[in-house]
Write a structure and sequence with these properties.
42% of the residues lie in helices and 14% in strands. The protein has 376 residues and is an alpha/beta fold. It has 2 domains: 205 residues, Rossmann fold; 161 residues, Glycogen Phosphorylase B (Rossmann fold, 3-Layer(aba) Sandwich), CATH 3.40.50.2000. It has a 6-stranded parallel sheet, with helices on both faces. It has a 5-stranded parallel sheet with strand order 8-7-9-10-11, with helices on both faces. The longest helix is centred in the C-terminal third of the chain and has 18 residues.
């Protein structure tokens, strides 16, 4: 089974990586892709590596990385500079900035050329907003099965209708997608244990942290985080703090952006770390931080959700709060009882490394893909 995994990366991460490695943009597309995947941003090669171990032929595309796509286009004689942009800016997860914006035209066409060159059995899209529906229809003669995966707000229906199957870690999205006439199944995300040796020995020198983004999708959580900033010693790491008012107590506690392995290190430094879900999650537990935090061995303090107990033993492997006041009480309790906190953190890490790894997830994914391929 040939699987082509398509993803987009945050523009701020791409800009940081290429600024830190000035010669990278002049290197081959293979070397650039390897550097991007080695940074462990998002799901990195966590899908493809384990799929390949299971006997598939899986490859990754990072379709909004301009230097990477320019290199591939040059190597494969695709005339990038003459191609017109067909994907509107709004479909990208964050606005592209600087040289990334100035070089944007042609990215969609390069990605189309890459799909046609690989001719996968499965086109697996991690960003449902990249390929418009008409483009997916155009690719039908080169792809047997078009699959999307989503855990963020849904794009317009015209994008969704181009998929044969959409997998989602939002249980409530499954019936909504089916109502639109799109096949959908529940499929959880996870943690890749190969991250741990890359981190090395990390001292747990941060008592309580929040590691993640602050954006319009997280608006409901800002009062919670500001309350914690006023009543605990929480430290913040991630993007988006500059969007807050200057008077926000979050800004005074913010340690700046962290991406990829630096994000994992911030979690690994934390004895207790906060999780909260974006608004679209509604009352379902689902985000990468559930598994990244427990996987790195931090005590996860997460918002209480209906299905959280299906993922972890609440109170024994993770701790849940229902209000800002309860979150403060729990932080103070576990700071005063570090051995109890360590016991829960260790149990949470053991659960994630046993049941919530991407190695396990890919063992679940392959039968799903084979079953839907049999329908084509």
């Amino acid at each position: 089974m040939k699987i082509l995994i398509v993803d987009t990366y945050y523009a701020a991460f791409l800009a940081r990586l290429y600024a830190d490695q000035p010669v990278l943009s002049s290197q081959s597309s293979d070397l650039q892709r390897r550097a991007l995947l080695d940074a462990c941003f998002g799901t990195s090669d966590f899908y493809s590596r384990h799929l390949n171990e299971l006997g598939c032929d899986a490859q990754d595309l990072i379709v909004n990385c301009v230097p990477l796509q320019q290199a591939w286009a040059a190597e494969n004689k695709v005339p990038l500079s003459k191609l017109a942009l067909k994907v509107p800016h709004r479909v990208f997860r964050l606005p592209l900035v600087g040289k990334f914006l100035s070089s944007l035209p042609g990215l969609l066409e390069v990605a189309i050329a890459q799909v046609k060159a690989f001719r996968p059995d499965v086109l697996y899209c991690q960003d449902l907003s990249f390929f418009p529906g008409e483009v997916l229809r155009e690719l039908r003669s080169h792809v047997r099965l078009v699959v999307g995966q989503i855990a963020c707000p849904l794009p317009p229906e015209s994008f969704l209708k181009g998929y044969d199957l959409i997998l989602t870690s939002f249980p409530h999205f499954v019936p909504r997608l089916k109502t639109l006439g799109v096949k959908s199944e529940y499929f959880r995300i996870g943690f890749d244990e190969r991250v741990l040796p890359l981190l090395g020995n990390v001292e747990r020198d941060v008592g309580f942290s929040f590691v993640g983004g602050i954006s319009r999708h997280h608006g409901g959580a800002i009062p919670l985080m500001e309350h914690l900033a006023r009543h605990t010693d929480i430290r913040f790491f991630g993007y988006g703090a500059d969007s807050l008012p200057a008077t926000s107590p979050i800004r005074a506690r913010h340690g700046g952006e962290v991406w990829g392995l630096d994000m994992y290190r911030a979690l690994a430094r934390s004895r207790i770390t906060l999780n909260r879900h974006i608004n679209v999650a509604e009352n379902n537990a689902n985000n990468m931080r559930l598994y990244e935090a427990t996987g790195t061995g931090a005590l996860l303090l997460t918002d209480r959700k209906d299905n959280l107990g299906e993922l972890f033993d609440v109170g024994r492997e993770v701790v849940a709060y229902s209000s800002a006041e309860e979150a403060v009480e729990l932080v103070r309790h576990f700071e005063a009882h570090p051995e109890e906190a360590r016991g829960i953190a260790d149990a949470g890490q053991a659960r994630t490394l046993k049941e919530h790894t991407y190695a396990r997830r890919m063992e679940e994914l392959v039968p799903i893909l084979k079953r839907h391929l049999s329908y084509t």
